[in-house]
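Now read these lines:
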Amino acid sequence: MSVTIKDVAREAGVSVATVSRVLNGSSNVSESSAKLVRETIERLGYSPNFLGRNLRKRATNVILVTMPTSDHSLYMKIVAGMQLYANKVGYDIISTTTSQNTQIEDRQMNMLFNRTVDGAVLLGTTYDADKLNSLAENYDIALCCEGVEGANVLTVTVNDELAAYDAVCTLIKKGHRKIGLIEAEKTAVSSIQRKAGYLKALEDHNIPVNLDYIYSASYDDPIQGEAAMEYFASLEDKPTAIFAVSDILAMKAIKKASELGLKVGSDISIMGFDNITMCEMMYPTVSTVEQPCVRMGKLVIQKLIDNFSSSNKDNKYYYVEHKIILRESTGD
């Protein structure tokens, strides 16, 4: 005879409702009880009848994750974190790439509109705040890694302004006062906030802002990191350090600096943002701001699943803690 949810509840010494909440990924269960239930499920070999439950609840136990590209290890690490939590509580993740194309994103979001999935996490989106707020009224959605100004939607990111502030302060503590910035799109919230952190760090250390030290590039065209480095090297009063708002822009700046005969880490220091896998693989290794990708992925899925069964939706902005990683590109 197959094991039932009642068998699990009786063996664990908890209510059927508690077992159900654990299976649904609800946070309304103590960690000790949740652990006991999971251990009992594994020991008894209980297999939840998700199909029958889904027919009753019109649930799929599947979450859609959209991202601009699959070529970025940052996104793949976040999705890995999502899968770790989702798998633990009986959910599956479907990940897609939008190529930052609204029509493609609309087509993928049809999975949410026709209830093929229970909810969606957007790792960067072409949608504006109005569209996101409208969607959030009828569907369970969340933003991760990149927020949207004015969106009243569950969001999980690092504190981009504080993280950039800490990165630039680190360069200042190393003796730099001529610090360049490679920013990205002026519409990307992360780039705007990282620039704000750069400016605040200069202000707090009484360093005048030199507009010649700010170069506007793009997240989508990393080769502009090379153009930025070429521009900085052409200045009569050159910066001694550069903070780039992404690792890929920083890496392209490092490549160009080496081509120009500069020794990165001594002639010029360069710091990126994200701590993607390549940071430790290229030479010189890249100093950066680490985004805790796995933790971000786990948290956004946990909060989204909680929203599935809640009448009072959690649309808070959650910050996860960043970390400064110093390597050879800043002389460490």
In short: Residues 54-157+292-320 form a domain with the Rossmann fold fold (CATH 3.40.50.2300). The longest helix spans residues 73-88.
